Recover the amino acids of this structure.
């Protein structure tokens, strides 16, 4: 404005306008049911990312703040939940994001699936790190319509930690277990982990003696427990045969460029409402809806 028109705009005005449009982009009327029919398959992913939040207790209670607000603020972290869906035949993702609870994120995922062409006859291919709230929402929102898969590289991290006991043989061992996972030979992987549990016992006793505590779960045991608790979500063979992804890289990269690139700037702290408004702005840009939004604003003002 100053460069082209010679008008200086106060920083507070720019902030207020940004917050106003961020709120206008909020979609509160979320679809609760998919339409009839729909695409044959849609890839659906959800995940959470912690963002820095500042709050003032008196404001949250609706009370008038007295004194220096800086002395009354509380700093913490809140999970921003990102959803994305895409037709496997397309490279165009459809995003939604909320600072709200898992149910809100689940409803947003339904919106993403609908935007990607999904319907009541669509098969959902879900993939992620297996967080309980994500698995719960996949079941709650889609039921038998969805198949959920644990991110292959997330499982590989557990296996890699368990394989540290093998020293130089770790890489060969890890690749062997990965091949078994892709062939759905889960029992063979669990048997290998049982053998590693026997090897880790002497090492664990020595570590406990040095540290004075044996409370930390040994890597082989942790990996075995992780897999045993998620046996229904390890069907990699089916996904690979259908040429569907077995990793959640799309949602992980989405966190970086949709959420974190803006909401996790050094020194930035957000009020809850403003964090949601900024998420709305980021999602509109990510979905390539920016020009359409401003076209609608201009038409409404005409």
């Amino acid at each position: 404005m100053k460069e082209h028109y010679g008008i200086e705009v106060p920083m507070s005005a720019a902030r207020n306008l940004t917050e106003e449009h961020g709120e206008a982009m909020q979609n509160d009327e979320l679809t609760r049911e998919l339409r009839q029919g729909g695409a044959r398959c849609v890839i659906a992913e959800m995940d959470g990312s912690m963002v820095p939040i500042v709050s003032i207790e008196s404001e949250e209670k609706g009370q008038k703040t007295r004194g220096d607000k800086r002395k009354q603020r509380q700093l913490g972290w809140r999970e921003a939940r990102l959803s994305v869906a895409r037709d496997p035949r397309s490279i165009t993702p459809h995003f939604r994001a909320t600072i709200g609870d898992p149910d809100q994120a689940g409803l947003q995922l339904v919106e993403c699936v609908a935007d990607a062409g999904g319907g009541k006859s669509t098969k959902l291919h879900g993939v992620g790190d297996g967080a309980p709230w994500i698995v719960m929402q996949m079941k709650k929102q889609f039921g038998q319509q969805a198949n959920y898969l644990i991110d292959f590289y997330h499982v590989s991290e557990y296996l890699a930690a368990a394989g540290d006991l093998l020293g130089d043989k770790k890489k060969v061992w890890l690749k062997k277990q990965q091949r078994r996972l892709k062939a759905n030979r889960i029992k063979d992987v669990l048997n290998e982990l049982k053998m590693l549990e026997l090897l880790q016992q002497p090492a664990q006793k020595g570590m406990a003696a040095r540290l004075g505590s044996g409370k930390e779960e040994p890597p082989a045991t942790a990996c075995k427990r992780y897999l045993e608790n998620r046996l229904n979500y390890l069907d990699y063979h089916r996904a690979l045969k259908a040429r569907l992804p077995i990793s959640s890289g799309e949602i992980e990269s989405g966190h970086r460029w949709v959420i974190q690139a803006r909401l996790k700037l050094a020194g930035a702290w957000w009020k809850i409402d403003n964090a949601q408004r900024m998420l709305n702005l980021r999602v509109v840009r990510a979905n390539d809806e920016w020009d359409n939004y401003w076209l609608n604003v201009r038409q409404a003002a005409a």
Summary: Residues 152-238 form one domain. The mean pLDDT is 89.
